[in-house]
Design goal:
271 residues
């Protein structure tokens, strides 16, 4: 009986020990995968931070200011010329828009006073009206009124010569917009050539610096984009203003001929 009791106690102890050991072995693999992501997370975070820093450094190396000041003294002069060309284009566009206005070229007050003076047969009154409202049409009519004593043919020739002169003056001022629109792409092309020269110079070293190579390519692309940005609006505004000026000049010439047709029989009234 005693032997049976001892055997039962021994069997129970072995069963409890084996169960405890199996529980420990089962818990160990579960803890290992939990610790593995923590061990991998630290290098991954460090790699992510390094990649972000490298991307930020790369973007700064090819940014606009880095391109402007990193392309040498020739590049700085080129960008100054591009900015100057853009500013000049804006100035001449605004100037042309103000100049090519009906009220600037042929004021209504001037036409009314000239009509009133010619209706009264007083050419000097019409001439004083031209002096009071200076402009293209006033200059044309003044040239005709100044030769009123020489006959209608001389008046007409003087007016035609003055009209050609005023037309040329208007077109010359508008031509500066065309100059800016043609000059900007050339400056952009020069910047592109400079960037390519820098790029091939970097490649010639054998082991090129990636940052320097990217800066040279960025210089080529930025200058091309800047030249086109200036040229496209400038050439659009030039043709638009030129067409408006041509229409306005034709109206002015028709109005001038309408006004001077009464000079055939007008006598000069002296004060």
């Amino acid at each position: 009986m005693k032997r049976l009791v001892m055997a039962a106690v021994l069997f129970a102890g072995l069963t409890v020990g084996s169960s405890h050991l199996m529980a420990q072995n089962a818990a160990a693999p579960a803890a290992a995968p939990a610790a593995a992501p923590a061990a991998v997370a630290a290098p991954a975070a460090a790699e992510g931070a390094d990649a972000a820093a490298a991307a930020k450094k790369k973007s700064n190396s090819t940014g606009f200011l880095a391109v402007v000041f990193g392309s040498g003294w020739l590049g700085v002069l080129l960008w100054a010329a591009l900015f100057g060309c853009g500013a000049a284009g804006i100035y001449f566009i605004v100037d042309g828009s103000i100049m090519v206005q009906p009220q600037k070229v042929m004021p209504t007050e001037l036409i009314n006073k000239i009509k009133a003076g010619l209706a009264e047969g007083d050419v000097m009154k019409a001439l004083h009206a031209c002096e009071s409202y200076p402009g293209p049409m006033a200059n044309i009519l003044s040239a005709g009124f100044s030769h009123v004593e020489e006959g209608f043919d001389i008046i007409q020739e003087s007016i035609n010569a003055a009209a050609d002169l005023e037309t040329e003056r208007i077109m010359q001022r508008l031509t500066w917009i065309s100059v800016c629109s043609n000059l900007a792409p050339m400056l952009g092309l020069l910047g592109t050539v400079q960037g390519m020269i820098m790029c091939f110079g970097t490649l010639a070293t054998g082991a090129p610096d990636v940052a320097s190579l990217a800066l040279a390519i960025a210089q080529a692309l930025w200058t091309t984009a800047a030249g086109l940005t200036v040229a496209i609006p400038a050439i659009t505004c030039f043709y638009s203003l030129r067409n408006n000026a041509n229409r306005l000049i034709m109206r002015m010439q028709a109005m001038t001929m309408e006004l001077i047709k009464d000079l055939r029989n007008v006598e000069v009234v002296n004060d």
